[in-house]
Amino acid sequence: MPNSPFRAQARWQAGWCRALGSPFTAMLCDLIADRLPASSPLARRLDQWPGNIHDDALTLRVTGALHGRVRSGKAPALAALYPPHPLPEADRLWAVLEPELNLSLIGPWLDLPPQTNEVARSSTLMPGFMAIAAETGLPLALFELGCSGGLNLLPDRYGYRLGTLAAGDPDSLLQLAPDWMGPNPPDADVVIFSRLGVDLSPPDLADPAERARMLAYVWADQTDRLERMALAMAIAAEDMPEIVTGDAADFVEAHVKPCDGVVTTMFHSIAMQYFPDPSKDRIHRHMVRMGARATADAPLAWLRLEQENPGAGEPPTLRLTLWPGGEDRLLARAHPHGQIVSWI
């Protein structure tokens, strides 16, 4: 097989899947990279992809398509080998996988960016919001960049066990309890004054087809993630957060400004790496300008859960900049899917 950028990215994705506890999805990625015939129409489209293979998460578009077909009942032979069934032999999986790698079946998914909206990241974001609330004593006006369906715009509607500290809604359907290392976060109530998100292509979680698509992007052998997302979707359905369609930099410049009586809080999680460099620069410059206007009665916070060196294998960090003052602080290191939080 040719060592195209797509196939290299698929093998890279397989390594990440193994590291994050998804051996089945890793096997899928490796099989596609190593065995998909270069002459097939699907291979030609993947191997000649015109965009940025990594930023477009091309491999996850393919695995999402396969999982979607399995979940919808359209690929019964493949479903018989999918989780929760035991991990199959590679040759046996390839025999039923190859017929599914058809451009007519996979092609429509290649035009859509994967959106998993991992709600367990709220396990890391919530203690960051608690730190902001503890320092300011004010309610938070939340603005999320790259918010997908907005599930992480609802941190106060989930329950948490953060170290030995209980937080959030104790009666919530969704209870998040990451493996916690380090001291407890600040014991502060988080009051949400308002919430607004932006995404280039926000899914409509009121649409069953959109909900099914988001679930399909979750790795098939991570059933706990699937269960969490389904519960979060049920919670969101009761009162959907407002999400606008648009560019993150345009959104920040239009909406993120200090306001008396609230902490204007911009946040994002595993999103900034997908923004073009000019947008990143505009966002940074705007936050610095607005930070200069912040006061104790109208503070400004920038909370970000991001991989500082994407692709380097390092865990994401949770960092906070709070104005007035503008000191950049490292609050925690965390698992990309929220299972582990090391509070600093």
Task: Kindly describe this structure.
With 344 residues, this protein is α/β, with parallel strands linked by helices. It has 12 helices and 12 strands. The strands form 2 sheets. Strands 5-12-11-10-9-8-1-6-7 form a 9-stranded mixed beta sheet, sandwiched between helices. A 3-stranded mixed beta sheet has the order 3-2-4, covered by helices on one side. β8, α12 and β9 form a beta-alpha-beta unit. The termini are far apart. 43% of the residues are buried. The mean pLDDT is 95.
Topology (elements, then pairings):
Elements: H1 5-19, H2 23-35, H3 41-47, H4 58-71, H5 76-79, H6 90-97, H7 103-110, H8 122-136, E1 140-145, E2 159-162, E3 165-168, E4 175-176, E5 179-181, E6 192-199, H9 208-216, H10 223-238, E7 242-245, H11 248-255, E8 263-269, H12 277-293, E9 300-306, E10 317-323, E11 327-334, E12 340-343
Parallel strand pairs: 1-6, 1-8, 2-4, 5-12, 6-7, 8-9
Antiparallel strand pairs: 2-3, 9-10, 10-11, 11-12
Helix pairs in contact: 1-2, 3-7, 4-7, 4-9, 11-12
Annotation, overall tally of beta strands? 12
Distance between the termini: 46 Å
Q: Please state the average pLDDT score.
A: 95
Largest sheet, in brief, is: 9 strands, mixed
Spatial strand arrangement across the major sheet = 5-12-11-10-9-8-1-6-7
Q: From the helix content, strand content and strand pairing, which structural class follows?
A: alpha/beta
Secondary structure: helix percent: 25-40%
Radius of gyration: 21 Å
